[in-house]
Every structure is written in structure tokens, then in C-alpha cells.
Amino acid sequence: MKLxxxxxxQLRTFYEGREVCVTGGAGFIGGHLCDALLYLRANVRCxxxxxxxxxxxxxxxxDLEPQLVRFIHGSVLDDEALAAAVxxxxxxxxxxxxxxxxxxxxxxxSIEQPQRTWSINATGTLRVLEAARKFATAKRIxxxxxxxxxxxxxxxxxxxxxxxxxxSPYAASKAAGEHLLASYAACYGLSGVSLRFFNVFGxxxxxxxxxxxxxxxxxxxxxxxxxxxxxxxxxxxxxFTFVSNAVIAMLLAGASGNxxxxxxxxxxxxxxxxxxxxxxxLAKACDGGARPTFEKxxxxxxxxxxxxxxxxRELLGYEPVTTLEDGLAExxxxxxxPMSPAEE
Length: 344
Hints:
This protein is of the alpha/beta class. The protein has a domain at 5-200 and 241-268 and 307-321: Rossmann fold. It is 41% helix and 16% strand. A seven-stranded parallel beta sheet has the order 3-2-1-4-5-6-11, sandwiched between helices. The protein has a two-stranded parallel ribbon with strand order 7-10. A two-stranded parallel ribbon has the order 8-13. Helix 7 links the parallel strand 5 (140-146) and strand 6 (192-197). Helix 2 (28-39) crosses helix 9 (243-255) and helix 6 runs parallel beside helix 7 (169-188).
């Protein structure tokens, strides 16, 4: 993933040599963030329990830069593992920036496993905040939330000041994480921000899970010669956000000179796309394919999602760096590449 050239020098000045912790760094978005941090020459500690990912990509990064990347196999619910990831070592000071991505990131899975979702997403956020408070060198916490906290509020685009209406245990746990971060900023002076991601997609996103996001699921079905499956009538809309946009937002949030006090900030592409439109774009990108089939709408899914990114521009200097079409093309190209033996 390429960073925009006009941001590289600014970000490298901040991140080079800086101690950074990424929770959930073996996951899809976390892996791309680790790529970018390594490119910026940060010292990266990654903690992940590998419950929904593998260490394959991180192993490649460690082989590439063993002095800059350290992996801690553990859960954010494990205080000892968190201390190893966030706290000082004999050779390195405590982490100065914490990117908190560790989570169960699926609405359907949260409906099946509400207690586990709450434990990882809400209590896990509390544990990360406590670790940051204990090791007071943490200068910034960037916690990842979700557009799902808005629920089915019909107002569009979604604005951060809207009343939250979570419709699933996943969304409720993300809303709780936001409130926890804001309370720690108020009570303990921690500097942090919650980024509400809107439907992030891109290369390396798993497509073989029952909980797969819509874009990798569509691409896999089309690549296998099958019709993509839409839950509902397909008129529901999403603000599909290529992973490079999510990564640049996180990097800007971590490096921002603004006094961030636990604000929640939308991160999207600022564009609405229906699932019917998405299926059409992907069919063309995949050299044609069967028309989608339709199944009953799933519980907890919202109808429309579209981000107002004005606050992200104001607070973070954020602008999307990759269009939907370019992001889809890059994702399809990645999906078509020959698999390595480890992936087969």
C-alpha cells in the first residue's frame, strides 16, 4: 500500500524511531497499518491472540525488519501480555502511540456470541486504556470504532453529533468503547480519538468466513463463477472505504498536534453506493458474472450508511486518498493472484 507522497515526509518525521503499539495488528486492517508504520520506520509492537487471523503477514514483516517489529501473542484481556506490548522493556521505553484495533468485528458473530463480543470489544478497550494510564508515556490513543453505532437513524450523511442507536451487540460494544475513551480523556488527561470506520475493504481481507464482509464475499463468489448473494433487496447503501484511507486516517490521528480529548470522528470515503451498484461494478471488474441472488435481510444490519467527513478534515487533516473504483480494482487484482503454498 502506497502512502500519499505529500504526507510521507510529515508522517515519517513524527513516526521514525517512535515506539508504537498496535492491538489486533495481525488482522486485516492492523496488518496494513503495520506495513505503513514499518515504511515510516517506527518501532512496532503488535499484540494479537490470532483468534480470527494468522501471524503469517507479521512473520514476513519480522523477517524483513527484525529490529523494528515485535509480536506479542496474547489477548487484550491478558494484563501481562498488554504490559509486554505497551510497557517498557530493557531496551525500549513504553509505547508513545497506541492504535487499538483488537476486536470481534462482525455483526452476525456478535449476535451469536454477545458476551464474548462485549468482553473483547468493551472490556478489552478498558484494559488497553488502563495499560495506557499505567505507562504514562503514552501520548496518544487511536481507538477504532464503527459506523454501526448510528443504527438506522434515517438522517444522511451520518454526523458525529447524532444520537447513537446501536442495533447489535457489536455496535453497542463499540459505542461503549467510545464512551470509555472519552471518560479516560476527561478523568486522566489521556489524549485520544475514536475513529468510526465505514465499511473498510481491500487486499488481504478474508473471504472464506461466514462473517466475511460484502466486498470479499462478492469477489470470491464471482471468481468462483457463482452469483453474489445480497441479504435484503440490494437498495441498502454503504460508504465503502478502501483500506489505504483507513490507514492514512489512523496515522494522521496518531500524529496530530491537536489536543484530542476522546472525540468520535467519522472515517469514510464520503460516497454512497448501493449493494446493487457494487455487484454491477464488481461483475465488470471480474469480467462479467451472474446476477446477484437475494436472501432475507440479516438481523442487526443497518439500511444506509454514509459518512460526513467534515470533522475528520478539521481535526486530522484527513482526505480520502483512494477512490472506490481504484480500490475495488486493486482488491480484485490481489484476489486473482496465485496463492502461496501457505495460503492454499
